[in-house]
Design brief:
globular, 454 residues, OB fold (Dihydrolipoamide Acetyltransferase, E2P), 3 domains, 11 helices, seven-stranded mixed β-sheet, 26% helix, S-adenosyl-L-methionine, transferase, Rossmann fold, binds S-adenosyl-L-homocysteine, alpha/beta, 32% strand, eight-stranded mixed β-sheet, 23S rRNA (Uracil(1939)-C(5))-methyltransferase RlmD, single chain
Length: 454
């Protein structure tokens, strides 16, 4: 088998990013957009010794799990990897991914998995969207995305992951840009003004934020944009962010509010958050609530416990747990996130929390060596980024011997590696649940409970 060969393959499995996996002549092939159960015709794009990558040409026999993607541009866009797979099968795929990693990497045999928590309506769940503004192949102003290897935008009239409110907002903005001859940014020539439109929507409060990200200082015809956008019920904050750098980082440092408030407010459960254009905030608030409620259940709090929330971000889990704990300590590396965490604590009149800036693997051990008794926790929660926890942190956690560890993870491979360490050092895996926060994509969150056995 060599590059450019056209072959027929049955898709028997799915990879971590939702790509189809099949075998031809004993060689494993990864085929994007092919669905488990399909028989496809594909063209070999790249060959390695024992595996290769192929491009889907035609589905010869359609899988029983294949569905028509809702979004007409799901293939070139690439934002969703699983739209062609029925939602039930997506959930099964994600649950299996977590289970298989726990088996293969973690060495666990008896896995106490609870059924995955999926969404009833797995579309339109994102509360944040950043649309590049440009021209399509006919030169028409559009909000969309750059398809691979091109410099013209493919319009996304309706992104099925985004809030429904995005469409009328973009419609109004594009119309005024057209009328007033306001140029979109062209990343090739570094000219033009409007780079991106950021929209954030509070699903609970229905408050809307629009931020114009400009290659320049001022939005021309500002009053006209404001008049049009404020016709939309719920409009709360309109701002301009300056990004004059030749970079693919979306936002610049400076944001100026041109109408309304500097932030929108939203809730996860009973906890209120103020969200500014640059704040980190969970993108699927409904499933975040499901995830945090599970973490809270696993934490088993009665009101007397001290809890450490490591990798706490803007303190979302900390504040959730503080409602049921005696004291919560949060640690996070990004200073702005800790500033937000403190602000959010005050906003909710939560006083039994303390936040520290720094690396979890440094702040926590040093706090422990200075204030051992006070730092003693019944429960430690970790929610690290994809690379998981440093081993030095895991060893400090073990030495502090909390009764329970709740590990929230966005990457089940590093989760499995870290759980293997913890279970080799006095803990037992008690409960595991996957939560589908990113429906239609290959990503999956999981929450696990470990209990101390010695
Ligand atoms: N628990 C939060 C955020 C989890 S995301 C929530 O639910 O919203 C992981 C967080 O870990 C990010 O905010 C990231 O900035 C932070 N982080 C990354 N490396 C870190 C480290 N070494 N120590 C502490 N925090 C870290």
């Amino acid at each position: 088998m060599k590059k450019d060969d056209v072959i027929e393959v049955k898709i028997e499995d799915m990879g971590v990013d939702g790509e189809g996996i099949g075998k031809a002549d004993g060689i494993t092939l990864f085929i994007k957009d092919a669905v488990i159960g399909d028989v496809v015709q594909a063209k070999i794009m790249k060959m390695k010794k024992s595996y290769g990558y192929a491009r889907l040409l035609e589905v010869l026999t359609s899988s029983p799990y294949r569905v028509e993607p809702k979004c007409p541009v799901s293939r070139p866009c690439g934002g969703c990897q699983l739209q062609a797979l029925s939602y039930d099968k997506q959930l099964e795929f994600k649950e299996n991914k977590v289970r298989n990693n726990l088996k293969r990497i973690g060495g666990f045999t008896d896995i106490p998995m609870e059924p995955i928590a999926g969404m009833k309506e797995p579309y339109h769940y994102r509360n944040k969207a950043q649309f590049p503004i440009g021209r399509d192949k006919d030169g028409k102003l559009t909000a969309g995305f750059y398809a691979a290897r091109t410099h013209s935008l493919i319009p996304v009239d309706e992104c099925y992951l985004g809030a429904k409110i995005n469409e009328p907002i973009l419609g109004k903005i594009l119309q005024i840009m057209e009328q007033e001859h306001i140029e979109p940014y062209d990343e090739k020539t570094h000219t033009g003004l409007v780079r991106h439109i950021l929209i954030r929507f509070g699903f609970t409060t229905k408050e809307i934020m629009v931020c114009f990200i400009l290659n320049g200082k001022k939005l021309p015809k500002q009053e006209k944009f404001i008049a049009a956008l404020t016709e939309i019920p719920g409009m709360t904050s309109i701002s301009v962010n300056r990004n004059e750098k030749d970079t693919n980082v979306i936002m610049g440092e400076k944001t100026i509010t041109i109408w309304g408030s500097d932030y929108i407010t939203d809730y996860i459960g009973d906890i209120k958050y103020q969200i500014s254009p640059q704040s980190f905030y969970q993108v699927n608030p409904a499933q975040t609530k499901v995830l945090y409620e599970k973490a809270l259940e696993y934490a088993g709090l009665t009101g007397t416990e001290t809890v450490w929330d490591l990798y706490c971000g803007i303190g979302t889990i900390s504040l959730f747990l503080a409602q049921k704990a005696k004291k919560v300590f949060g640690v996070e590396i990004v200073p702005q996130a800790i500033a937000d965490a403190k602000k959010n604590a005050a906003l909710n009149d939560i006083t039994n929390v303390d936040f520290f800036v720094g690396k979890a693997e440094e702040v926590y051990p040093s706090y422990v060596s200075e204030h051992k008794e006070e730092a003693k926790a019944e429960v430690i929660v970790v929610d690290p980024p994809r690379k998981g926890c440093e081993e030095s942190l895991l060893s400090t956690i073990v030495s502090m011997a909390p009764e329970r560890i709740v590990y929230v993870s966005c990457d089940s491979a590093t989760l499995a590696r870290d759980l293997k360490y913890l279970c080799g050092h006095g803990y037992e895996l008690k409960r595991v649940q996957a939560v589908d926060q990113f429906c239609q994509t290959g990503h999956c969150e999981a929450v696990t409970l470990l209990q101390r056995i010695r």
